[in-house]
Design goal:
This protein has one domain. It has about 180 residues and is mainly alpha-helical. The N and C termini lie far apart (about 45 Å). Helix 3 crosses helix 4 and helix 3 packs parallel to helix 8. It has a two-stranded antiparallel ribbon with strand order 1-2. Bound molecules: zinc ion (ZN).
């Protein structure tokens, strides 16, 4: 299991204060979840298909330049440092908040199940792969390949260019919410 510790000060002075602030509040799962829901709602009535659409869409979105906590915790030689605990707490709060918004907005729709299945599919890869309690599954066949592919495909935006990723991140989340709200 990976040991979590506060972000070493060395990375902090490399990042402009605004970037650091935005990194702290940047979306970790919202665009993935909303995009999975939107694409599933647009494409299918079938729950497993909805889940897998969200799941595969995750790779596509990770390949775009985007801001996520990883942006601020990448070290120069392509290695990642362990994320500090507050990121996981933030992600859990973000997850609960997005779920409450989705329930509030869409729970009366007939395709609510598909919206949920697509959304869960959209974040499933991050739950499996970035879970500090499940690091051991990276040793297992299939999960090892999945982890490799997830990291390989991920667009590595340098921390000092974090703002390049802001627009795609906001556009994906905004368009998805707009699409879901159309009905
Ligand atoms: Zn990911």
């Amino acid at each position: 299991m990976v040991r979590l510790h506060p972000c070493p000060p060395v990375i902090y002075h490399k990042i402009k204060p605004l970037g650091l602030y935005l990194g702290k509040i940047s979306m970790t799962i919202t665009p993935h979840l909303l995009a999975g829901s939107a694409v599933a709602a647009a494409a299918t009535d079938n729950l497993p298909i909805a889940f897998f659409l969200g799941f595969f869409l995750h790779f596509l979105l990770d390949a775009l330049p985007h801001v996520d906590p990883g942006t601020f915790f990448e070290i120069e030689n392509n290695q990642e440092m362990p994320w500090p605990t507050w990121i996981y707490i933030f992600a859990a709060i973000e997850f609960i908040a997005v779920c409450l918004i989705i329930i509030f907005l869409f729970s009366r729709r007939p395709d609510f199940g598909v919206i949920i299945a697509g959304g869960i599919g959209g974040i499933a890869l991050d739950i499996i792969d970035n879970n500090p309690f499940l690091r051991f599954i990276h040793q297992w066949p299939f999960f090892r390949e999945l982890h490799f592919l997830h990291h390989k495909i991920h667009y590595k935006l340098p921390a000092r260019k974090w703002y390049w990723g802001l627009a795609p991140t906001l556009i994906v989340a905004g368009l998805s919410l707009w699409y879901l709200s159309k009905f």
